[in-house]
Amino acid sequence: MTQAQPIKPPKAAIKPKELITNGHKRIDNYYYLNERENPEVINYLNAENTYLDQVLAPVKELQEKLFDELKGRIKQQDESVPYKEGTYYYYTRFVTGGEYPIYCRKKGSLQGAEEVMFDGNAMAKGHNYYQIGGYEVSDNDELAIFAEDTVSRRLYTLRVKNLKTGKLYAEAIPNTEGGSFAWATDNKTLFYVRKDPQTLLGYRVYRHTLGTNTKADVLVYEEKDNQFYMGLGRSKSKKYITIGSDHNGVATEYYLLEASKPTGEFKTFLPREKGHEYDIVHYKDKFYVRTNWKAENFRLMEVPEGKTADRTAWKEVIPHRPDVYLANMDVFANHLVLGERKAGLTNIRVINQKTQADEYLNFGEPAYVAGIGYNPDFNTNVLRFGYASLTTPSSTFDYNMDTKAKTLMKEQEVLGGFDKNNYVSERVYATSRDGVQIPVSIVYRKGTKKDGSAPLLQYSYGSYGYSTDPGFSSARLSLLDRGFIYAIAHIRGGQEMGRRWYEDGKMLKKKNTFNDFVDVSEYLIKNKYTNTDKLFAMGGSAGGLLMGAVINQAPQLYRGVVAAVPFVDVVTTMLDESIPLTTGEFEEWGNPKNKEYYDYMLSYSPYDNVEKKAYPNLLVTTGLHDSQVQYWEPAKWVAKLRTMKTDNNQLLLHTNMEAGHGGASGRFQALKEIALEYAFMLNLVGERQ
């Protein structure tokens, strides 16, 4: 018998391009891979996909088994907990075999006749990708605005449906922002956000009258600063249509228009001011304002209608607290509900506005996530909230804020014999190299040995102030049941420990994020949760940047790394303002046209810092139509790693040729990507079952 020939990986052609910034020259050998329509580029991506299939052929059966396992835990015929808005109860349901939700409602009571508003399965027919980007029902309950995306570029087409007749109106407005639309009270005027199809930034708000030519739509607001993101909606009180412009962690501005006066003029709530961020909730004759004005961790204030631009009229309701981050709020006729973060955990605080008595809901687990749900009614004493932990499936509760009675409305049903008592969660703290304590949430199956022999997957994100909370994943059970430990590192760059946690992990302090992750890895090894031959790391998008930086800094710590849609070509992307979302990111990473930021970015950008050395086994995933992180970033990174790395470890690139940043659409198709990631890791620790 002859020994099988090793499978040869594809190699992208080298085509040097000189890039000069701030007097500094870089040579990018794979710059041309950004030519999406170039057959050579498409052929290269397809060749990488073929190579991945060949390398992972020995675990093809495992991959299929994992997919069946993941799918088998999902209750196929399922339904959400209904919520009441106006005279209707709204809910979504899934049918056996259905990839997409069916959006339904019942009038008067849950015993009423079901009305199907949108059947996602029927609407998705003929499309490789499909997503409904939200909907809004008119005040007379007869019409619905909805938005659909069939390409996965987050450019939605806005449509209007008559819910009584099922008729679709002729309007089909392209390049809109999904979920950013609102009805006026006349049931015929609607407002929507138009996106720039190049940068994908929402930048204009239009007024449209149902049944008229969209070319006659009236421009009512235009955002001139391309560093601001924009959204639009209707206030909980239904009195106002609101435009919100947000400059990533730097400034906020709201504009209001009474929904009963659709041809009126939007007026500023409070003019934008660098460093001031705020949210608003309108109730009766006043606004509640969550604000960081003289309050790094935010405080709550209130202000009468008509005086919002006069900050001397703002009255403090909840003061600033250095150890508590005020994350969000909801307002009821007799109660005020706050979402807070303290010591890295989420809390829900309920305040009786008549007695001022307050309480924190008790959840009783060391690592969990709890959040205020959708509560459209002011005049109720029942709070809808969500809860999950590393061992408790996602749950929906109704809480009576007067009697303190807590009712479990639904717990995600996990099929296949799942028992939460078979799993253990922990909360530990690892010391980063600068002495800061980093929270780590850990889960494993009972009986898993903590003697250094267990494989472990360490996950994190660490950017944009996005907190990675310890929630539940039925998919994760496939790793836990095969002996894996799973750990979430709550590193700086998120907001788990308050606003300062975020500020200390961005801009010129970004390297704290990477250092924290590596130091958590070393803690897990030192404390016998795993060892370097069985430690895996995973992150996506900005978390993919984290993966790239980590394996440049400490490749010896990891057996394998999964980098999903990774943002790895930081400098080149941030220099190109034509790329979607670049300008809005300057306050996260810095503007590399400024030499100080250029030099700092260049010192950690994964693509620019690939060296001739050994790297861990690596699985990189992307989508050809990705609007957030363009496919060519991971493609270039893999191409460069192939020529530079000195090891024989696996280097695999998977490009979904039909999807974007969020991967495949549909509740089952997305599981195939998870099965691929798990098979990659399990194969490396010798697990083929």
Offer a quick outline of the entry.
This protein is 17% helix and 34% strand.
Structure, described:
The protein has 689 residues and is α+β, with helices and mostly antiparallel strands. Helices cover 17% and strands 34% of the residues. It has 12 helices and 38 strands. It has an 8-stranded mixed sheet with strand order 31-32-34-33-35-36-37-38, with helices on both faces. Strand 11 and strand 12 (189-195) form a beta hairpin. Helix 6 crosses helix 7. The radius of gyration is 26 Å and the shape is globular. The model has no long low-confidence stretch (mean pLDDT 94).
Descriptors:
689 residues, 8-stranded mixed sheet, 7-stranded antiparallel sheet, globular, serine protease, Serine_Peptidase_S9A
Overall shape: it is: globular
Number of strands: 38
First-residue to last-residue Cα separation: 28 Å
Beta-strand fraction estimate: 25-35%
Q: Oligomeric status of the shown chains?
A: single chain
Across the major sheet, the strand order is 31-32-34-33-35-36-37-38
- Put simply, the count of helices is 12
Give the helix/strand class.
Answer: alpha+beta
- Biggest sheet overview: 8 strands, mixed
